[in-house]
Design brief:
Blueprint (H helix, E strand, L loop, with lengths): L14 E6 L5 H10 L5 E6 L2 E7 L19 H5 L16 E3 L2 H12 L1 H15 L12
Antiparallel strand pairs: 1-3, 2-3, 2-4
């Protein structure tokens, strides 16, 4: 293991990130908004591609922030380049970065148009939550 890995606290071993489909309608934006209601989850757009990042420490990270399975680590860990690691402190230059459901909702309104977004969302909600019928309490 190169010396650089021991200096950052294992930042790359404390989350995982993978590409997701770009939302293009209200239902898909609502799915992504749901992700953001979960602790440790962020979503970002990088060069037009959408990603979800989940803060979750690797089980193989030792107390001294070294890898306990380094010689047998997964291929994805072997492919990870120190030249682009989290410790470099480089600005990743995301197109967009969402940490809260509210941030994503505002972006969805800007992208789809506020009135169209609200109308489509209300319509989707109405289909899922029909009006509650009142029960008559009359003796028979």
């Amino acid at each position: 293991m190169k010396m650089k890995c021991g200096t950052c606290g294992g930042k790359c071993c404390r989350y995982f990130c993978f590409e997701i489909d770009e939302p293009d309608d209200v239902d898909e934006f609502e799915d992504v908004r749901w992700y953001l209601y979960h602790e440790g989850v962020t979503v970002h757009v990088d060069e037009g591609d959408w990603f979800i990042s989940i803060a979750n420490r690797c089980n193989s990270l030792n107390d001294d922030n070294t890898c306990s399975v380094y010689d047998n680590r997964p291929l994805i860990c072997r492919k990870y380049s120190q030249s682009h690691c989290d410790e470099t402190g480089l600005d990743y230059g995301y197109d967009h970065h969402f940490e809260t459901p509210e941030q994503l909702e505002l972006f969805a309104m800007e992208t789809l148009g506020k009135e169209a977004f609200l109308a489509e969302r209300d319509e989707s909600r109405a289909k899922l939550e029909p009006p509650v019928k009142k029960i008559k309490n009359s003796p028979e």
